[in-house]
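Hi C.,

You asked whether I'd gotten around to modeling the 179-residue construct. I have! Everything is below, sequence then structure, no commentary in between.
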Amino acid sequence: MAGSFSNSNGAEGTPEGVPYATRRTVEIWTAASAALIGVVAVSESLTHDIGWDESGPGSGYFPFRIGLLLIAVAVVRLLQIRLKPDSTTSGTFVTREELGRSFSVLWPTVVLAAAMIPLGCYVPSAVYLAWMMRRHGGYGWLLSAAYGVAIAVVFFLVFDLWFRVPLAKGPVEAALGLY
């Protein structure tokens, strides 16, 4: 692998960081996850009619077949991985540094989604935008907060007033009388 090196414990890495997951490991977990989803789809569809009668397919017909296809594809992929030489499925999939960057976007997004339930769309979106501008954009807190609030106001004007498609509101909007 070009640009690779061995770290102190002998593991091969890349200049960006120590490997956290290999391609082979990720492919195995992905195939196993697809198979599990297929098993769930098949087992759940068996609680419905999976046949076809004069009125057409039963409610479990398509989910059952899609589940079987998922299981079959996953098994084929696992066999391919097993039969391939390690050199074709080895290599770094992600380093700790890259995974950290991904999680630095994922966790605030998860918090945003969870916060929208009790707080509505506008306040969590403004906080999220301000946080992401500060954390990933390197902007100051004042500018980040100003943009977060400005975009939330624009969303309110566009969706609630112009399109007349109200987004979820929370206690702050209720306190401001925006219901």
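If it helps when you're writing up: The longest strand covers residues 19-22.

Thanks,
B.
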